[in-house]
Design goal:
β1 and β2 (about 20-30) form a beta hairpin. The chain has strands at about 5-15, 20-30, 35-40, 50-60, 70-80, 90-95, 95-105. It contains no helices and seven strands. By secondary structure, the protein is an all-beta fold. Helices cover about 0% and strands about 60% of the residues. Strands 3-4-6-7-1-2-5 form a seven-stranded mixed β-sheet, with no helix packed on it. It has one domain.
Length: about 110
């Protein structure tokens, strides 16, 4: 079963000076504070280069952690090379199931 998520936001920063950068953030409900929420580039990407596909991975860190549900921040950052395609949407996947689709805001 996919984890509960909230507050997804994606933006493309076109403010000078170059290079442009792209960011995605969101909150994921995890079973303890030792679980990291990571967003990774999904392989393979889809056929539409304007839609970025990301995988959400939950990684338990070693050690003793209190068993209390906690909101962890998931984040993806990318520096875009000059002339690269601009993303208009982001699809987040967990275990090959889509859990969120986000429209990209442009900051210029």
């Amino acid at each position: 079963m996919p984890p509960k998520t909230k507050d997804w936001y994606a933006w493309l920063n076109l403010m000078p000076p170059p290079p442009d950068d792209f960011h995605v953030v969101g909150k994921v409900l995890v079973p303890n504070p030792g679980v990291l929420a990571q967003l990774c580039y999904k392989e393979p990407q889809g056929i539409n280069p304007a839609i970025l596909l990301l995988d959400l991975h939950l990684v338990q860190q070693p050690g003793m952690w209190p068993q209390v549900m906690t909101w962890a921040t998931a984040r993806y950052d990318e520096i875009l090379p000059p002339g690269s395609a601009r993303y208009s949407e982001v699809d987040i996947f967990f275990e090959n199931a889509s859990i969120a689709r986000i429209k990209v805001d442009i900051v210029s």
